[in-house]
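Lecture 7 notes: from sequence to structure.

We start with a single chain of 122 residues. Read the sequence below before looking at the structure.
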Amino acid sequence: MALGQYHLFLVMAVALLLLNGVSVATATPEGEPGGWTPIKNISDRHVQYLGELAVTAHNEEKGTSLKFEKVISGETQLVSDAVNYRLDIEALEDDIVKPPMNNYQAVVYEKIELISFKPLLD
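Now the structure, written as tokens:
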């Protein structure tokens, strides 16, 4: 699926909040609906991709120029046909000569939708 199409199915509710401290945890989207579960593999490419999308969306919405570095911790929450990701993100202020590293928290709502499923023909 092309990145543009993926964006159509990725509804982002991004709330970037400056954190005073960071708790290093790891997580996975398993668990009870409604509860938050730590992400077990925080270095997973998909988790890092969602963090980068959150920073990009924030930059576009607020006219800022944060530079995504990495997701440092996070949790998932199952909600009906979707997953919420609460991600702690490390980012640089790109427009400063000696940028400070800041930590932010983003909440990303990812809806998974099956578009097609059919047998392959030989």
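DSSP finds two helices and five strands in the chain. Keep this in mind for problem set 3.
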